[in-house]
Task: structure prediction
Amino acid sequence: MFNVQFDIFNFSNNITFLTLLISLISYWLGLIFKKIKNVFYIGYGSTILACITITIILGTRWIESGYFPLSNLYESLMFLTWGLLFSAIYLEYKTNLYLIGAIVSPISLFIVSFSTLSLPQDMQKAAPLVPALKSNWLMMHVSVMMLSYSTLIIGSLLAILYLVLIKAQQKKHSLKDFAFANLEFTFPKSTNSTNFNLLETLDNLSYRTIGFGFPLLTIGIIAGAVWANEAWGTYWSWDPKETWALITWLVFAAYLHARITKSWTGERPAYLAALGFVVVWICYLGVNFLGKGLHSYGWLN
Amino acid sequence: MNYIIKFLNKLNNLTVAIIILLAIALASALGTVIEQNKNTDFYLKNYPLTKPLFNFVTSDLILKFGLDHVYTSWWFIFLIILLLLSLTLCTITRQLPALKLARLWQFYTNFNTKAKFQIRFKTNSSSLTKLTYYLEEKNYKIKHFNHFVYAYKGIFGRVSPIIVHFSLVIVLIGSMLSTTQGRTQEAFIVVNQEKPVLDTYEAYVNDFKIAYNSQGLIDQFYSDLILETRQASKIQKTIYVNEPLNYSNITIYQTDWNIDNLVICIDNQNYYSIPLQFIELPNGSESKYWINRLDLFGQSVFCVVNDLTGIVYLYNQNKDLICISSLGEFITLNGHTITFNKLVASTGLQFKLDSFIPLVYLGFLLLMISTLLSYISYSQVWLVKNGSTTYIFGSTNRAKFAFIKQLTEIANQC
Result:
């Protein structure tokens, strides 16, 4: 029984790696060589496949260990990748914007290879939960936090892309010369087509994605606060992880408000979102390398 | 008074609000970089004046501005109060007035105005019915007027931000009250001994147990607890980590544990209770050790215990292991029989009196719902007939892309 599951796990791991590599190559081939358009379908398809295999990896772990697979760094990174891929698949379906897959596939491939190749074997094994983590809140708090991280990462990546493209445009490279130009979004041709250019699309898409990640982050932080209050009697203790989650929340709150300020159009909110990208990563990984505080479970023991 | 009004006017500005948010973020980050709540010597030693961190953080600066306790320093609390004021002002002077129907439903009389419509479409269809039907199908609410049709959807997206601000104010005020009015106390309670705790409460521990999993690691801590109030009512519950006892405004949490005494019997007649000392290992190891030196019949031995499973390790003065004994087992030392009878444990509990938890939780609940609903985009559409052509005007506050896509589709269907 154990052997069979181990094989499924290894097999899914290899397939994930392979499909993400294929997806990365096909998306970027499509971007660089404007003429071959069908590669995007290969990219999109393999992204979906990678998402499914990660679901299998996490699913077998869930069945094996009996609790939601978010107890160590490896599982948490895999879940983050799952969130990134899932959001990318959804957004791409909604907008037909292949740039999303093109930016999400390299970052996913990087995370997956880091977690399977660089993490020591014993850190990849599912470990029994310490008493403090034995709670239904684990699933609620950690999964919502992870989903919010992945949504916010995609949202802020789109904002960074927007900044890069706008800088390129300002440097007199017309966007037409840019390899991405063939992705310019056009509505069905008719008398009433509104020209919504790539930059505007990216800008609005990153706003909407962050706008969705933000309530998730709020719910995740609150679930953590309520859990902390149930487990050790205080809902806020300025633990580094908590504090950085709050900082992330504040930065994205500032971003969302900047969007509705008339004097803050265009680039300035995007800079805040780019700052948010850095802050999310500090919150998710950086804090744990300090090895202090209440959130140091399942990491570098 | 004038100054206050001027000050409040300055504060009532989105850019200022954004700066406050970022200032709190920066201050919070500072508190995770500089170690908090250490003694003065620590800062003098680690942040010398000669070698400032980031070229400006020195012990002088830290101590002067309370950077050793950022989150309770006067200026951090001042920032929080500024945020509270800014939230309240924004809600009263901007958000609530904007909720008036007249401002929500913008009935333009002249559609040539330069009002910012994201959409200005023209269709040749002469009837509004078809367009209205499509809009209704997309969940728009329709209002018919003499010369135009007004449609809107997503009103929650307009109302929710107000509730977000309101619930943040509740959470901030609630947690301020919690920290100033609430009380906590940590106590170790020896099994089978009564102990008075906070106010009129007394706690009694029937039993304390540690459950281990198959790999020998700690699975859970259980304290079988009785809480007695002055009214002589008794509440019994087995609490564990993540499962506290709640009664009225008191909550009791499982937080820690200790082994206090080892009961030893010599030659089957004399019983002694030996206090054990908890030893903290310098390398921050997870294992715990309790230790005591026994002088028995001219020989010194060290008893070492590291959990409640009842295994006692005996070492001689040269730190060599003499024997491993379990409770109740007879061992012989210098011709005497020794039995370890019992380990006396105590459970570390945290007692908390806080009447403002429900208020904070109410804020939490409202905040979760309202931030989620704030995602909704508030969209408005005007259909105006002019002879044989129909004009479609539209505006939305958040999902511009999806809105334009949707209306383009509707317009093309006609």
Q: What stands out?
A: The CA atoms of residues 22 and 28 of chain B lie 10 Å apart. Chain B has four domains: 2-96, 101-154+377-413, 183-258+348-363, 259-347.
